[in-house]
Amino acid sequence: MAQKKKPQSAGSDRQAKIQAAASSGAGSGANKIVIAAVAAVVAIVAVVGFVVIKQVQSDNAVKGDGQAVPAGATMGGAYPAYQDVTAKAGAPTVEAFEDFQCPGCQQFERAIGSTLVDLAKSGDIKLQYHMLNFLDQRLGNTSSLQASNGAYCAADAGPGKFEEYHTIVYANAPEQEGTGWTAAQLKDYAQQAGLTGDALKTWESCTELGKYTNYNKAVDANAFGKEGIKGTPTFKINGTIIDNKTFATPDQVKAAVAAATR
């Protein structure tokens, strides 16, 4: 049989309401803490996500979304040296196909490098470089690619910096083929080329992100493809491959340039 509840007294009724209110207030406070904590976590995640996105965008901007090429060049094409010099009328185009780790390239650099530089500075030739990196695979390192990246990143600092860096790297060729260069050495060469302060920081960012990696690889592929190169060093005058034996001394270089001048 159902029993009728006894009526509560006024005192006990007030006590029950107080306890209910206290219980309700405690739950509400806990919920507020949980909500606040979740909101804080969401805010942190949003900030971190924003920072990551901005960093990725910044890195992509430096690398040109993988399509960055040095000033004056096209993807896979030669790098034109001394762009601040106006070539004389009829000056021939001299192209050098090199790999920084190539011993023969180092020998030619010592023999005729300064002659090519002088001719380019005086406007007697239009000097172009194709820096290759095929020896990386053969030697088991990435020094050719890293040194080439360093040279193009140096070019970003201003006229003549690619050429200075190029000369310094060859001047510091390792005694043993395949030893290559460390990142610290390549940075030192940038400093020797005159990069300091913000210019040096920009160079470091450029090389660390591999800004010109795709360009370098495209140059290498084109050299052994449509350019018809079989090895390094190789030189072309006005698009024609010349015999290295006739281009090995300053006098031979000057004679070849004079013959090609129109």
Structural class: alpha+beta
Note the gap between the termini. 124 Å
Figure out the total of helices.
Answer: 9
Arrangement of strands in the largest sheet: 1-3-2-4-5
- Indicate the proportion of strand residues: 5-15%
Q: Please describe the biggest sheet, giving its number of strands, its sense, and whether it closes into a barrel.
A: 5 strands, mixed
H-E order: HEEHEHHHHHHEEH
Coarse shape: elongated
Number of beta strands = 5
- Low-confidence sequence ranges: 1-8, 50-63
Portion of residues in helices? Answer: 55-70%
Rg to the nearest angstrom? 34 Å
What is the overall pLDDT average?
86
Summarize the structure in short.
With 262 residues, the chain is of the alpha+beta class. The protein is built from 9 helices and 5 strands; from the N terminus they run αββαβααααααββα. The protein has helices spanning 10-63, 103-121, 135-139, 143-155, 161-171, 183-192, 197-208, 213-223, 250-260, and strands spanning 79-80, 93-99, 126-132, 234-237, 240-241.
Give a verbal description of the structure.
With 262 residues, the chain is an alpha+beta fold. 56% of the residues lie in helices and 8% in strands. It contains 9 helices and 5 strands. The protein has helices at residues 10-63, 103-121, 135-139, 143-155, 161-171, 183-192, 197-208, 213-223, 250-260; strands spanning 79-80, 93-99, 126-132, 234-237, 240-241. A hairpin with a 2-residue loop joins strand 4 (234-237) and strand 5 (240-241). Mean pLDDT is 86; it is low at 1-8 and 50-63.
